[in-house]
């Protein structure tokens, strides 16, 4: 495993001020129950993001998520502080009627906007805590077909409030070819339904290397993800985080096996600042002006 996260070496240095003050970054996971949302959070936190003093036993599984809950970790690297929070949401699909299962999630996102707005309106605005959701990972069932009506409904409810990042869950259940075709269909559906997903900027960056990295990440969207904290043995004798099958081992941290590494790179390194900026300048700003209009201001 790599020894550091990399946010201290962010290629884009527009954020010097936030570097000094420390970052607050919040990501949320959304999707049907059982798709591996809680597992992905563990997978993210158990690597560079968070080095627990006690390593979790391999059998440790998270209980079913029944309420919106968040997990935070303070990470410091080369003198740069990051408070990373991941918000876990209960999955839909457990109830006969899932019609409004997006509602508590949208309300949670809005209440975070409200809290920010309230702090901005205070006389003393020195210590604003930014708990807004900067990225929302939307988990898509690995059906190989296309987006389901409930996915479209969820994404359309969410896309004006958060940076949506679509993810194909449990990608180890699909072949490489199936994944490629599925990605195409998902992107077509997203276009067809006018859903706005987060776009990596490809201009702005004069740094050739950073630009290439961003393009490589952008090509992977929607990310095909495998989550696991279990250590398994590969045929060539390595011990890796992954999932073992009779036909072989799928490695979480191997870029030839899934897009987990690219997703993490995007969240923590290449696009963290962009995700924060878009949240502030577009998503929050829209929410704020609508709210003020609603109040007749
Ligand atoms: P959640 O309801 O979305 O939070 O899903 P969980 O994280 O609780 O996972 C549900 C089940 O799926 C558990 O048994 C996990 O071990 C399993 N699981 C999680 N991620 C993956 C994955 O990437 N691939 C496969 N095959 N199973 C997974
Ligand atoms: Mg869960």
From TrEMBL:
One of its GO terms (molecular function) is GTP binding. Keywords: Cell cycle, Cell division, GTP-binding, Nucleotide-binding. Residues 21-294 form the Septin-type G domain. It comes from the Eukaryota. One of its GO terms (cellular component) is septin cytoskeleton. One of its GO terms (biological process) is cell division. Belongs to the TRAFAC class TrmE-Era-EngA-EngB-Septin-like GTPase superfamily. Septin GTPase family. This is Cell division control/GTP binding protein. The chain holds residues 38 to 334 of 436 of the full protein.
